[in-house]
Amino acid sequence: MTAVLEGRAITARLGHAEVLHAINVSFFEGRWTSIVGPNGAGKSTLLKVLAGLLPHGGEVRLLGEPLAAMPGRARARRLSWLGQGGAGEGSADDLMVYDVAMLGRLPHQRWLAAPNDADRAAVERALRSTQAWEWRDRPLGQLSGGERQRVLLARALAVEADVLLMDEPLANLDPPHQADWMQTVRELIAQGRTVVSVLHELNAALVADDMVVMAQGRVLHHGACNDGATHRALEDVFDRRVVVHQIEGHWLAVPR
Ligand SMILES: Nc1ncnc2c1ncn2[C@@H]1O[C@H](COP(=O)(O)OP(=O)(O)OP(=O)(O)O)[C@@H](O)[C@H]1O
């Protein structure tokens, strides 16, 4: 099976320190993978490297091609990114919600061309799926943290990319909208897309198909979320302060 997204011997430095150490990791079509681990494990850094947003050693391959050699627009059509807490989105505060979501269509549009029917349909689908459509005429800067997160998620969905990388997508979302996000991911997976999400909520992370467990800039384990070896790796990386149980058919990480 060919990996849709692959990191080979990935290293990354931040400041003077190497924070990722020779990571090899592959993600496959129609799978949702959660990346978990303690604070400072390197999860966000790995996700940024996989998105082509950070200088790094080794090679990232997207759909079998080196990401670094891929023209920017082609890359942006295939790989969609949702950063942590809307970092760097302050400059979009004056934009209307509709226009923020439309930014997700830029990789599909010709230079300076107006959005076409396909772009408008994709934006409406995305805003409706995160229940943000009713705010379409409001400026992003006037929304609450969770509302804003749903608009940024809609922008990432509007790209309709093969691969979605999301860093802490559940941050600020209330429980019903967390459940909606999981439903949205399930629909993307059913369409054959690939989703990789960094998650601190371990119970949400355990709903994914696969889990990457990281610590100290390394991948300690990569396996199925319903596999006992993955549960042991998760318990170990958090110093056995959590224990994984199955309750009413769901895997839950319970503090102890
Ligand atoms: N600009 C920087 N300069 C130096 N070190 C940095 C810089 N940014 C992050 N780091 C370090 O890199 C390491 C990995 O950080 P990263 O944000 O990838 O971790 P994380 O697993 O996503 O953490 P968290 O769960 O806290 O969000 C951490 O030890 C962090 O202190």
UniProtKB/TrEMBL annotation:
Q: Which InterPro entries match?
A: AAA+_ATPase (IPR003593), ABC_transporter-like_ATP-bd (IPR003439), ABC_transporter-like_CS (IPR017871), P-loop_NTPase (IPR027417)
Domain ABC transporter: start-end pairs? 5-241
Q: Which Pfam families does the record match to this protein?
A: ABC_tran
The answer, when asked if Transport is one of the entry's keywords, is: yes
- Keywords on this record? ATP-binding, Cell membrane, Membrane, Nucleotide-binding, Translocase, Transport
Tell me the Gene3D superfamilies matching this sequence.
P-loop containing nucleotide triphosphate hydrolases (3.40.50.300)
A GO molecular-function term, please? ATP binding
SUPFAM superfamilies from the UniProt entry = P-loop containing nucleoside triphosphate hydrolases (SSF52540)
Q: Signal sequence: where?
A: none
Q: What does this protein do?
A: Part of the ABC transporter complex HmuTUV involved in hemin import. Responsible for energy coupling to the transport system.
Q: What is this protein called?
A: ABC transporter ATP-binding protein
Species this protein is from? Variovorax ureilyticus
